[in-house]
TrEMBL record:
It comes from the Bacteria. Residues 182-281 form the AB hydrolase-1 domain. One of its GO terms (molecular function) is catalytic activity. It holds the Pfam family Abhydrolase_1. Residues 395-484 form the Peptidase S33 tripeptidyl aminopeptidase-like C-terminal domain. SUPFAM superfamilies: alpha/beta-Hydrolases. Residues 1-27 form the signal peptide. Keywords: Signal. This is Pimeloyl-ACP methyl ester carboxylesterase. It comes from Nonomuraea dietziae.
Amino acid sequence: MPGRTGWLVVGVTMAALAGMTPSAASAAQGEASGNGRPRWQACTGQDLPAGMECAAIEVPVDWARPAGRRIRLDLARLPATEPARRIGSVLGVPGGPGAKGIEDLKRAAGDLTELRRRFDLVAYNPRNTVWMDQLPQVCRRPGASLHEPRNRGQYEALSTTMAKAFTACANQDRSGLSAHLDSLSVARDMEAVRKALGEERLSFMANSYGGVPAAAYARLFPQRIRAMYLDGVINQTTGWPEQGLLALRRMEQVFGRFTRWCADTPACALHGEDAGAVWRELVRDADRAPIPVTSSQFGKAKLTGWHLRSFGFFPDPGKGNSRWLTFADAVDKGRRGDGSGFADFALGNARVWSMPGILAMTCGDERGYTGYARFQQARRQARKTSPNFGGAAFDALGCAGWPLRVANPSRPLPVGGLPPFLGVGSTWGDYAWTESFTAMIPGSVTVGYDGPGHVMYLSGKKCPIEHATRYLTTLRLPGPGTVCPAE
């Protein structure tokens, strides 16, 4: 469901379709030492920030069997530039899932120079990146043709097909990781990083899906958190359907922005018409008679209204409103029987979200429907909340056939002993998610960024970064209702 807002869909799709090769920095030279402490040495590779050091630690594949098979997690750090005034370390918690924290640190280093004065900036590549880098070929194959089931029979058939795909993937998994990619396992890895750093408590910067392991860490190790900065994070503790409804409400608001923009913009292909009505008619007609398309990447297929609702609209208008111009053009072509403007992105994401190797990184966090009754209820709520985009959630459909126990179910987060957290979110998109997280923790604040975007500190947004730096350094929070202007 969260992927409906565009950026999470893009992130996972690109990770899945771009070859899944390790980065230069993640091929770290540093080895894990015998006592568990990392051996830091200069990283090698291209486009690395000056002074970046690399190392590695080892952690169990299954934390319930600490003496069993182990995997290596690559680390990187940028040491504090004012060591005499050093406070400690800030650990980045990347999103995705499947994003590499070392790549995040490389990207953000130039914008975090003030924070680095007082902290070592530490990154790691989570266990799901280890999984992605050695993914068996069968795990990359779509397990089913994702669609919105019309009845119990179709739902159960989809679940059965996906369960077979998960089982086939697990049978080819030589790492053992496919059953241990849940965020509780990731949180225990984070604790291993803290111990390896020799820090009594850590400060954290979590982004996007990184909010799920951040919550898991807060659940397991609340006394080890000095401060927690959350940037555009999902709040899995309230349940994915609830987070999906928050996303849909915001999507409706942004779609209203689009229709007003189109009405005022002669260059919009739907200018002079009721753009919202044209979109809803296109979606309705595609559900009744799917649009035949030929994709350069995925061949011949048909686009249903579900494909369009799930993957058609970008809330971020893009530079010069380029994405909204493209969307309006695609809608105009679509109503004339030409679905080419939607084909590659919609079909690509529908494939990715039925790949068992991708889904294995999220299904253990209870991302799937728990049964047909829950599917019906969630779909009904989604349609009521969002006339333009409501329906079955593609991520929950993919996980519906998850054959293993859900290791990290959604449930309330105990907040006793936690310090106040700082959140940042785009008022166009992920603010509602982040605020739902910080609202659980007394004294916490979420700053709104009054513009589109996702993960502000990775986007170089100065105002959110200044708030994050001040909070992490001094533990002082901005006032409730603080808003950063669009940059």
